[in-house]
């Protein structure tokens, strides 16, 4: 059967000799047959000479030993014949058994220990301990205990046992690094009893007791082993034990400290698994091994074969080797290939506010990091993904990329790893033997959730095996079929699938690879089993990108078959059929459809002729959502709104893309982009470049949009360009807005132009005239009920007064800024109000009070996830701390701020008042510390991995 993996042998030496074929024991009753197999396996994949084999089989070789050996080899070949004729090869000097490395438990043990040593060297003690636990679990008893070969037991078994004891010792050391001193005591008690002359185990037991607060018992351990060594060997304890004894007696404080604590490690963003991971052990090992040597591994295969699930599990298991974490970038929702680099930067959490190209931002972030990037669902942007990955790999030597795609990315050095279906049962077998098949195990596991009374029995085992073979072992097809086991038997499902496949093969649709036809048939069948409302909603929700909530579905998806009030019940039905997944951990239930099923839904939507209609509804819904968010900005709901918009990023991108592709309304795109800018969404999510991209594209495509909207969007684009340090572009956008508004009678349009005049006077020219200009704009916004815009004018007015005004007005403006934010109950605005008050105190009041205010601001911004505010908070903190006289700390903070300014791409030089103060403080610090001390402190701060922690009083570990 195409693509079905052939079952293989497994050999177990670490305990009584066992041979398994497809998970089932192979009888090895003859003693010499077992001895011969063991003699070959200890040197697997190498030629074992005839003389060596004879010596391992007989203590006193008989006459005719060579002929007897040939006879035993012949019998063993028959036993291990398998589908390929057996693994034993005749060579010139003897025989060789050819087996995959992973087929022998001894080889797997050695490989796991080697990986554990690499993990320990990378300071990943947790991973090292887990790998060693996995390795030691392979031991089932004494090696060769049932093999009649004195030579193997005398010469080979002791060496194997030493490797086991070494792994036990190594695992205890790894557990010590994790602080598990009390946890390892039962193990060490057993080891010292079983191996009483192994001094290293006694030393570990003493140390574990001491670190558990049991000093007396640790000393008693020493007395016990001393007496034992004297009685048995007539010797005293060795140097390690004796030195440890003295340190315990004197309560040496260094004994309580782990040898070397693990350095800080980034966790990444891999999602937690929500269902059991079944099978794929060999593929997992292969993928992990490839990631150790190949820079780019691409998992390929048809939809539904399990590429994403395998990639996420492999990434999670390999993540210990990457100090900067394993990160997932799901490209399925991406509709605009030109935003690929921005989408990856967003997934990596890179706070970039600059006008730099997204690829440049990624290169800067990844250049010195050791990181694993998982690019999922690359097929629809394969060419762009290939170009991006190639650039990143050339620029970032510590980067590894694990991609999933239906096709390769065509990057130099790419390793393509086809993902096969799950192994299916090859023939009839008892229920226990049947469930050793990966495909059957998956079917049983998923049926357990939706058909709890289903069991594999003697009566249905043949049908279950045939069903898994009929589904070609494709995981998604098996999961969809498992849902039906609650109402149909395996035989009934099989009959209905056979009808569907006959229909497909006779209709001329779909042709192509067998697995694609199989999956299409199962998905078609699942679709046919849905009622009209379910089929309609399946197609309808396919317009959503990255997930959706109930309110969105109710707004976008009602149709002739499905009323709005029925949506919630139909969603529940689709979820019950495993066509949707539901996440209820947040404030709103979040629905998501697997990409293969979503694409199927989109095909159906196009066939129904409803795709444009529903995409317009989708766009209208998100136009309304962003408008409501903008209207409620600077109020008690602003932080929840910002978080909600962040969650809806894929849908917002999809709506914007629809607006600018010609099928949608570019004016609606302008409205969405403007609303997102007014809510500070692009600032909050550190994606100013993306905001500017959408604004400029929509402006180009909507020249006939209402003048007030175009004026507002041009000024918002000018504001973004100004924040990016791109003065020339900012002035160009503002000039275009001024020309358009020259004859405008719209008060709102004239008001925003007046506001931007004040902003430019303040930030570009450092002109004190900005203070009254901004105050005037503020009053205009207030009079028109534009609360959020009025608060932004308050913010800039208070900043301008602090930088350019006198003491009393500056402090009064700062207090008014904070009071206004508090009155509105606005969390994000209040954090910035504290920053503004801290700035006023630094410039005109008490520097110590300023540091406290700035610290409170940073704490609030950290709590709400504001990555834009952190940059300015730490920069201002360095100024205030310098004013308190703590010059060394100020220089470290200035270095930490410089790191953030560089990584976010913010150019202080384009913001004159801030740049002037920065330069003044830096000169003052150099004078106070001296050039060398200032440079050292600055470099220390710049090297910190956690600038925010440093600013809040921690060490910001490097």
List the helices and strands and how they pair.
Layout: E1 9-12, E2 18-21, E3 24-25, H1 31-41, E4 48-49, H2 50-57, H3 65-79, E5 88-90, E6 94-97, H4 105-121, H5 125-136, H6 150-177, H7 185-194, H8 199-211, H9 215-233, H10 239-249, H11 281-293, E7 296-300, H12 307-318, E8 326-330, H13 340-347, H14 358-366, E9 371-376, H15 382-395, E10 399-405, E11 414-418, H16 431-434, H17 438-450, H18 461-470, H19 475-483, H20 490-507, H21 514-529, H22 532-541, H23 550-556, H24 567-576, E12 581-583, E13 590-592, H25 595-607, H26 611-631, H27 638-647, H28 649-660, H29 666-678, H30 681-684, H31 688-701, H32 707-723, H33 727-741, H34 747-763, H35 770-783, H36 787-804, H37 807-824, H38 827-844, H39 847-864, H40 867-884, H41 887-904, H42 912-929, H43 931-942, H44 947-951
Parallel strand pairs: 7-10, 7-11, 8-9, 9-10
Antiparallel strand pairs: 1-2, 2-3, 4-6, 5-6, 12-13
Helix pairs in contact: 1-3, 4-5, 5-6, 6-8, 7-8, 8-9, 8-10, 9-10, 11-12, 13-14, 14-15, 17-19, 18-20, 19-21, 20-21, 22-24, 22-25, 26-28, 26-29, 28-29, 29-31, 29-32, 31-32, 32-33, 32-34, 33-34, 34-35, 35-36, 36-37, 36-38, 37-38, 38-39, 38-40, 39-40, 40-41, 40-42, 41-42, 41-43, 42-43
